[in-house]
Amino acid sequence: xxxxxxxxxxxxxxxxxxxxxxSSSTIAFPASVWMPDQRVEIVVGVSAGAGSDMTARRIQxxxxxxxxxxxxxxxxNKPGGGGTIGLTYLNQQAGNGHYVMxxxxxxxxxxxxxxxxVGYMDVTPLAQxxxxxxxxxxxxxSPIRTAGDLAERLKADPGSLTFAVGNSxxxxxxxxxxxxxxxxxxxPRRLKVVxxxxxxxxxxxxxxxxxxxxxxxxSVMLPHVKAGRARFLAVASDKRLSGELASVPTWKExxxxxxxxxxxxxxxxxxxxxxxVRYWDDVFGKLAALPEWRQELEARLVEHTYFNSxxxxxxxxxxxxxxxxxxxxLGLAKSP
Length: 336
Hints:
The protein is of the alpha/beta class. The protein is built from eleven helices and eleven strands. It has a six-stranded mixed β-sheet with strand order 2-1-3-10-4-11, with helices on both faces. Strands 7-6-8-5-9 form a five-stranded mixed β-sheet, sandwiched between helices. The relative contact order is 0.18. The N and C termini lie far apart (76 Å).
């Protein structure tokens, strides 16, 4: 066809017809991409200063400093109910990718013990960003000087001491305490455990002399140990840790089989789309690879254990089964 002999209208019709005849298989359409277009809320189910809260604020800062988000992010505290208030708030935002939550094994134990019906299958696991071990501490004036002293007191009378745990009975902190007690041949059901809205509240009660022992993440206790107001007794890890906890014995060293880990995971509300999950996989994968993030973990004596969304769901499934068995032995399991 000679375009020069055709009118402009004929040329336009010809070009349009040619484009319509192109097979759709030869046109590469971009994949659907989701990204936040409003403020992102990082929800925590504990009070300010608790372990999950501190993790959330470090995540918020690094996301902003490294420009990993297309929107601003803010930390929103929803303490109470052993974390169930925050979890309920999160799931009220079904399908909304602008809400994520920092959580821990307490989310699993809350379901097992019947505190909530919402479990890991009812939310969208997004990432696992580190694992820390439960540390046992006392205030500096305590007559309990060593882990051996604590073990002997538990063996003689588990009900003679009060333990602070966050943020609910049946939590990983409570489980660590029960493991030590059971290993000493005593009945862990006789323990006096006080659950606070977060580990920081339990530490405050410990320093005020209202609680005898705190089972908590090392990060909330470390400043008080450095200041001479408290001291570490033992850590529920499978091997000696480094840094500030290098001199702290493990329970396993004493022949006591007590290993309790506390991972920090990120979840979204139920019903997130594949595009939203892919977006957060990318964001948290980049966060976990930052040298600054690794430095943050080392400073808080947290193991660097990154899992993506799929592997985080698998981790929670395994952990749920293990925790359910332990809590059933302690008479705390209520879920089917």
